[in-house]
Amino acid sequence: MRALFTSLLQVGPGDAGPALIALGLGIGVVVMAMRARRRRRVRELLFRDAPVGVGTSAAAPQATESRGDVRALEDWLSSAGYEGPSVRFQFVLWCVAAALLGGFTALLVDSSGVSERASAWLEEIPGGVAEILVPVMNAATWLIALLIAMVPIVWVRRERRRRANEVERDLPTVLSLLATLVESGLGFDAAAQRVERSLGDGRVLSSELSRVRAATLAGVPRATAIRSMAERLDVPSLTTFSSALVHAENQGASIGDTLRRQATDLWSRRREEAIQKAQTLPTKLAFPLVICFLPGVFVWTFGPAVAEFVDLASSVLADRP
């Protein structure tokens, strides 16, 4: 790693652009793989006590370990809502197209001479500012290329975060409704169907509960269908709920009590997060208040006095012989 950074420092600004793009993409891929592996390990630990034939199979751990990171990209895309036999190929194709577009844009900007003119303008600034800003300007075109190459990754990450936030927002209400319906005497499938109707067709949890019911009607064990839902969405709170529901069904515990405990825990967690955000709000407001509000207050308060002082000083200087 030290030799890599030393070689990057020794190359010129024009040669460091492709190396910078490759380094950025490599770091992004490594970070994504590490996070996917950690989330998969957490899911394995949560579901590892499921008996054979109900929530998992005897070959499931070996199959999960054998695939390694082969399906990590496919799982990541599935958690963002992109599913299909060719979704992985399409994503790789989009990444290659974005990288080519970024490289073409960088070469076009370099050939136009904008960077040279900007560097020459910066060198005229006194005070040694050019020593800091000129290397940044030379690498700016390749930084723009790197940003363009990262557009597909950022897009999928944004979609995944949007779905995860939607699931986190709807899950406490869904669990409360499921617990109330199950405690009133309905079965889990009937309660899930009622919840789907109340949520509507455009919500993520509604479509996922519909897939769970369809898989159950097709003969798939309910624990397996619920675990598949947790793996598709890859949301921590949903994974915890799915693990608790699978273990409750396997051990013969009351599903209604499990749903009620999970709903209470999620509501308590949401309340704590709201309190934490409220406590950090004054610290976040300090910066915009100091930058935007206090200068206006100073101008409004001291502006007339300063103007009168300037007029008085001008009149005194004008009366002097």
Summarize the helices and strands and which ones pair or pack.
Elements: H1 2-10, H2 16-47, H3 60-67, H4 72-79, H5 87-112, H6 114-123, H7 130-149, H8 151-183, H9 188-199, H10 204-217, H11 222-233, H12 236-251, H13 255-319
Helix pairs in contact: 2-7, 5-7, 6-7, 8-9, 8-13, 9-10, 10-11, 11-12, 12-13
**Rg of Cα set:** 29 Å
Give the mean pLDDT.
76
Q: Into which percentage range does the β-strand content fall?
A: under 5%
Structural class by sheet pairing and helices: mainly alpha
Low-confidence runs: 1-14, 51-68
Can you tell me the number of structural domains? 2
Number of helices: 13
Biggest sheet: strands, sense, closure?
Answer: none
Q: What coarse outline follows from CA principal-axis ratios?
A: flat
Order of helices and strands: HHHHHHHHHHHHH
What's the count of strands? 0
N- to C-terminal distance: 75 Å
| Helix content range | over 70%
Outline:
The protein has 321 residues and is mainly alpha-helical.
Describe the model.
The chain is mainly alpha-helical and 321 residues long. It folds into 2 domains: 14-157, no CATH class; 160-269, Receptor-associated Protein, CATH 1.20.81. Helices cover 83% and strands 0% of the residues. The chain is built from 13 helices and no strands. α2 packs across α7 and α8 (151-183) packs across α13.
Main attributes?
321 residues; mainly alpha; Receptor-associated Protein; 13 helices; 0% strand; flat
